[in-house]
Amino acid sequence: MFRRLRSHNDGDRRENQHERSWKICNELVLRGDAAMATYLIRHSPRLSGEVEVSTAKNAVLPLLAAGLLTEDPLVIKEVPRITDVETLLGILRDCGAEVKRSGNDVSVCALQPQSPSHDEHMRKLRASILVLGPILTRSGSACVGLPGGCAIGQRPIDLHLKGLQAMGAQVHPIGGRRQLSGRLTGTRIYLDLPSVGATENLMMAAALADGLTTLENAAKEPEIVDLANCLNRMGACINGAGTGTVTIMGVDRLHGTIYKPIPDRVEAGTLLCAAAVTDGSVLVRGACPEHLRSLLFKLAETGVGLRETPAGIRVNGRAISPFEVRTLAYPGFPTDMQAPMTVVALGCHGSSILHETVFENRFMHVTELNRLGAQIRVEGGMAIVEGGAPLRGAMVRSTDLRAGAALMLAGLIASGETILNDPAGHIERGYQDLPEKLRALGADIEQTEDLLGL
Ligand code: EPZ
């Protein structure tokens, strides 16, 4: 009843354990627990070869939302085939935009954007809130359901709303939705936290507001710079993106353009970590070193060999030395790399400490890693990893997007077979073809088919 995908040649020795693992996968499917995806991961040899990074999920999502700012088509190139993108495209259609995919490119054309009507779509994705600024600034009113996304913390939207209010919007709660109305006027806004989403939403809203908006304590992430570059190509007047102070002089209208987003720094970092935990030798093509500086410093500290080349980043050898790291807003160490870096710490000899300061609930992978035999304890906002404990394959569950990727890496270094159950399809939400990319480097990973497709 259960079909295996892309099976490798099984050695006789492993056959029994392998059949047992697939039996468990079948049971998961029967129970309805593995409806989205289940991965069977075997201890894998050193990863080697070359792998290409996709464009950045967290750049593509705001860029697609920016399509609501103009009546012309906005074409985004090389859009990754991941479910978060598909969900957002559904929301943009719900907002009245015409959305077309042509090969890897997506065009968004919004003659008259309107508020999304399906709150359940908004709830699937944090980035859904990025339709708010564009719709409000374009049409003078917007009513949106509250966004969802990975359950890694409370993730309120107060900074988005406060900023829009400061620009003149009236904000009213209506049931579980927020109704905003009013013509926006530029002003000076101080963000209590350098929120990535709030900076993006306010930048888009200010692009068509009257006069000058100044965002103080703005987020500096590369995805902010990418959005500002695209908006400027569309006729906006934005300066300072990538610094703590961003100024936006509103213009009357924006026009369409064709834009290629930056490479995905989190995917690139995850692939670098995959090589580092398997003592591999891998060229991560398209990875941008400037966007990955904090991670590269940390990996170098562990003893991994790194070389920046015009084609990307080459990584050689194993992480050995323990480390301490603190997640922070960019250019600090990215919270999205905390879970994969925890797996790196498992192979280092001694105690590593990972402090999480951005989200209050981002250690859910720790319980799952401990099921594999890892020795990690969480104390307040930090995870203390006693590296060197042998990992043994077991059944684990993906709790969020980056946790899922981290567990996949842990499966590569655990002995025997690891069954990674991802009932919510977290990994496919954010990584295009991650198992396939790892497999091309020599990893031994199989994936079940969607139960519905059987
Ligand atoms: C973006 O989320 C990313 N998502 C996240 O990636 C990433 O982890 C995060 O930035 C930090 O780098 C997208 O770009 C789609 P924030 P965002 O607003 O914008 C608090 C992944 O795995 N906050 O910078 O939601 C918030 O609770 C994801 O790809 C408020 O208090 O992050 C958090 O503690 C997960 N009020 C902190 O700020 C607000 O109004 C940073 O959040 C907004 C945020």
List the helices and strands and how they pair.
Layout: H1 12-31, E1 37-42, E2 48-52, H2 57-65, E3 74-76, H3 83-94, E4 98-102, E5 105-109, H4 119-122, H5 132-139, E6 141-145, H6 158-166, E7 170-174, E8 177-181, E9 188-190, H7 196-207, E10 212-216, H8 222-233, E11 237-239, E12 245-249, E13 258-259, H9 265-277, E14 281-285, H10 293-301, E15 305-309, E16 312-316, E17 324-326, H11 338-346, E18 351-355, H12 364-371, E19 375-379, E20 382-386, E21 395-397, H13 401-413, E22 417-422, H14 426-430, H15 434-440, E23 444-447
Parallel strand pairs: 2-14, 3-13, 9-10, 17-18, 21-22
Antiparallel strand pairs: 1-22, 1-23, 3-5, 4-5, 6-8, 7-8, 10-12, 11-12, 14-16, 15-16, 18-20, 19-20
Helix pairs in contact: 2-3, 2-8, 5-7, 6-7, 7-8, 9-11, 9-13, 11-13, 12-13
The chain binds ligand EPZ.
Ligand EPZ is lined by residues 58, 61, 126-127, 150, 153-160, 193, 195-198, 219, 335-336, 358-359, 401-402, 430.
